[in-house]
Amino acid sequence: MQALPHSEDLSLARSFTVPGVQVKCIQLHVFCDSSSSGYGACAYVRVAYDDCVKCSLVIGKSRVAPFKGVTVPRLDLTAAVLATKLGTMVCRELDHELSMVVYWTDATVVLRYLNNTTSRFQTFVANS
Fold first, then answer.
1. In the beta sheet, which residues pair with residue 56?
2. Which strand (E) or helix (H) includes residue 81?
3. Which one is the CATH code of 21-126: 1.10.155.10, 3.20.20.10, 3.90.190.20, 3.10.20.370?
């Protein structure tokens, strides 16, 4: 097995904030999406300073769609549930105070499901 060339020069930031710099606000942005072959979600921390903004990937999760025929709208709802679980876990584990948590989806079915006040959170969410 051969090592990567110049791997000793590689460095990764271990903090979401820059030490010694005043932070204006910290936000969490969670994205989710699905396709016929799978679904997933990822969370980013957005840190705003006086003169710039820094975004960092916190965590991402993906799942393969089940073998049995599941529709893409149902997978979109499953991805949204995964996103909320991911966002909740990140909020609990981060040492920083978050000013805002934003969830992003391009699935109209998820947005309509959340805005439906007549039959909210039926069996689908209860079993997820």
1. 45
2. helix 72-93
3. 3.10.20.370
State the Cα–Cα distance between residues 28 and 13, nearest whole angstrom: 18
Q: How confident is the model at residue 126 (pLDDT cuts 50, 70, 90)?
A: low
Rounded Cα distance between 58 and 94, Å, is 10
Kindly state the tokens that stand for 35.
Answer: 């396709």
The percentage of the chain sitting over the pLDDT mark of 70, rounded to a whole number, equals: 91
Q: What share of the chain is helix, strand, coil (3-state, %, to 5)?
A: 30, 35, 40
The predicted-structure confidence for 16-63, as pLDDT tens digits, reads as follows 888 888 999 999 999 999 998 999 999 999 999 999 999 999 999 999
